[in-house]
Amino acid sequence: MSFLATLQLKTTKGQRMENKKKLLEAVLFLENNPIRLSELEQLLNAGSLELSGLLSELENSLLERDSVLKLHFIEDKVLLKPDSEMMQYLLSVYGEKEKKRFSRAALEVMSIIAWKQPVTRSEVDSIRGVDSSNSVRQLLEEDFIKVVGKKEIPGRPQTYGTTEKFLQYFGLSSLDELPRIEDIKEVFE
Prior knowledge:
By secondary structure, the protein is of the alpha+beta class. Helix content is 56%, strand content 14%.
């Protein structure tokens, strides 16, 4: 019998909700990576509406306790991590983990894929004016981009898109947070 099942047998409905909230907080605390909402639903034996309520309650509880931990949503996943102010302090005390450094070519390829996805390698090559095979291969190996499909043209070339790791690396919750290309053009004009 699971821990949650044992708790449910010994508690009232109100206590069960509180136990689910505590279990949710514990799981998010122990998990070092974003966890899918669907996995949490399964773990907590909760529907999406109930999970949404539990996450909202947890978020409010963290605020009320003036906790440095905050929920951070990345597409269909959630992560519990220190707020940005505490993170800056921790980084100053403990030092920053060596962040992956990218070549200029890899950054160009990644930015083209981020804004134009789904996009083929030949489309990336066309925009850059040079071959991008090595950068695409490197970004695939390091899980910053992934194959998202095939284009419906002769040869059916693979199309690429960004990954969750890309979003995490750049501190984004979703691709909607990317600046618009028009805004970037204005800065350089």
